[in-house]
Amino acid sequence: MALDRIEKLIEKYFEAETTLAEEKELKAYFSSENVAPPLEQYKAIFGYTAQAKQEEFTAAVSLNSKKSNLVVWISVAASVVVLLSVGLFTFNHYNQPVNENYGTYDDPEVAFRETQKALEMISQSVNEGIGSMNYLSEYEQSKNIIFK
User: What is the pTM assigned to this prediction?
Assistant: First the structure.
């Protein structure tokens, strides 16, 4: 009778359906000396917890965490270098003379010619793009013929 109950409890244990009281019963059974021979294989599983409770950590832990002076000075020096480099970059960046030559022209005729050159360059680029679109329209017509 007890063997059947223990087998049912083991089955419930592996399906994660046991209560804490049932698990204590299993641990008590497997920590005793009279475990049935067919259930000997489970003794290691349930006997481990009793053994683990008895283990103690006995190694000494050193709580002295003094850093050497060299490490402290290296970290201070690195911080100073970073701050100096950021400061120098900022100083040089904001103290540069600003070039205010925005391409303005005093003579309206010169300004008109330069504007025409710029618009002609843009027109050439747009025309090249439109030429590429012709290939796409030919492709579209071919596709429509094939996939009707």
Answer: 0.36
